[in-house]
Write a structure and sequence with these properties.
By secondary structure, the protein is mostly helical. Helix content is 77%, strand content 0%. The protein has 9 helices and no strands. It is elongated and about 70 Å long. 28% of the residues are buried.
């Protein structure tokens, strides 16, 4: 009986993984509009009802994809926060890692930065984003404590402002017109933004 349950559980998990992978592929190929339950079911070679049974409706599918995207993002960010250095250096490393994630995983980044208008997905993705912003806030609080970050800045408000500024800059890559920066221009814009942020954060006598 136990072996049968284990096999059933493994099969269910494998089916769920195939469904989420299918949704990720569709997202990468055609953006959020391409991620429909029918398209996911066809790509995963399962019935639409199986998608419901193993993952859920469209919101649940998008949440599952967002969780995997966030897990990839977490790897980028954790590596940055683990970098030796001052609190400000860790904040700048985190910003650079966030930009790399956006460039290397554009569809996953867009899902997190511009979430779909699905109530359940919106709330869950916001929770994931706040988790990372809290790490930036913690580093800023360390900087205020050691005197390197301006004491008038609120860590949580500043972390949110930096996150919003990063999203605004990186979202230029979504533009369909001539204002969309090429990779060289994007790197220049990111470097300039980091310089401006650093000057605004530094506490100098």
């Amino acid at each position: 009986m136990t072996n049968k349950v284990t096999r059933t559980t493994r099969r269910a998990a494998a089916t769920r993984a195939a469904i989420v992978e299918a949704a990720e592929e569709l997202l990468a190929e055609g953006g959020l509009a391409a991620v429909t339950l029918e398209a996911v079911a066809e790509r995963a070679d399962v019935a639409v009802q199986t998608v419901y049974n193993r993952v859920g409706g469209r919101s649940a599918v998008l949440i599952a994809v967002a969780e995997r995207a966030f897990e990839e993002n977490r790897q980028y960010m954790n590596a940055a926060f683990a970098t030796p250095g001052t609190p400000l250096e860790r904040v700048l490393a985190a910003a650079a890692a966030y930009a790399r994630f956006a460039v290397e995983r554009p569809h996953q980044f867009r899902l997190l930065a511009d979430p779909p208008d699905e109530p359940a997905a919106l709330g869950h993705i916001a929770d994931l984003v706040e988790e990372q912003n809290a790490k930036v806030a913690a580093a800023l609080a360390e900087g205020i404590a050691d005197g390197s970050v301006h004491p008038d800045l609120d860590p949580h408000t500043t972390a949110t402002a930096l996150w919003a500024a990063c999203n605004g800059l990186l979202s230029l890559t979504w533009r369909p017109d001539r204002l969309r920066p090429d990779p060289t221009r994007l790197r220049s814009l990111i470097t300039t933004a980091q310089t401006l942020a650093l000057r605004g954060l530094l506490h100098t006598e």
